[in-house]
Amino acid sequence: MSKIEDFLTASQEQQIVEAIKTAEKNTSGEIRVHIEKNTEKPPMERALEVFYSLKMDTTKLRNGVLLYIAVESKKLAIIGDEGINNKVPEDFWETEKELMLSHFAKGEFEKGIELAIIKVGEKLKDFFPYQSNDTNELSNEISKG
Q1: Residue 97, pLDDT above cutoff 90
Q2: Residues 6+ away with beta carbon under 8 Å from 26
Q3: Which terminus of the chain is more exposed, N or C, with fewer CB under 10 A?
Q4: CB of 142 closer than 8 Å to CB of 33
Q5: 31 and 124 in contact (C-beta within 8 Å)?
Q6: For the residues of 73-86, what is the DSSP string, one character each?
Q7: For the segment 1-33, what is each residue's pLDDT rounded down to a tens digit?
Q8: At what angle do helices 109-127 and 10-24 cross, to 10 degrees?
C-alpha cells in the first residue's frame, strides 16, 4: 500500500459510503470503515479500540461491523460485535479479509473494500433483516485516525 493520501480519492471514498448505504438498506446491521496511517499494535487489537471509540458496541442488536485499515503499516482487520459474531461461520471475517487483500495486492483498494462491504452486508441481511422501524444507528462516513 502507499501513503494514506494516495490510498483513496475523494470520489472513491464516496463510492464506499454509497456501498455502505446500499448494504445497510437490506439489514438492521451497521457497517463502518476506519482508515488510518499506521499502528504499532496488532490489527485486531487496534480495530477493537477503534470499534469502541466509534461506539459501535451500542447498536440495539449488537450487529455492528468494522473494516479497519492501517495504510502505511499494511494492516487490516474486520471485527463484528457479539450479535453478529455469534451467527457467522468461524472463518467469515478471515474470508472477507482475504478478499480485500487480494484486491489490495493489485492496487484495487476501493474495489476490495466495496466487495467486502457487499459480502458483510449480505451476511448481515441473512441474520439481521431490515426492519420497517429500523434507524441508521451509526454514521456511514469513513472515519479516519
Answers
A1: yes
A2: 121, 124, 125, 129, 130
A3: C
A4: yes
A5: yes
A6: TTEEEEEE-HHHHT
A7: 456 678 999 999 999 999 999 999 989 899 999
A8: 10
Q: Which three cell numbers stand for residue 52?
A: 469502541
Which domains are assigned to the chain?
4-139 (3.10.310.50)
Q: How far apart are CA 15 and CA 21, in angstroms?
A: 10
Q: Please give the share of the chain, as a percent, with pLDDT higher than 90.
A: 68
pLDDT in tens, 29-38: 999 999 999 9
Three-class SS state of 125:
helix
68: Cα within 13 Å, side-chain hemisphere: 30
CA distance 61 to 58: 8
Looking at the chain, how many residues does it have?
145
What is the enclosing helix (H) or strand (E) of 40? none
Q: What is the pTM of this model?
A: 0.91
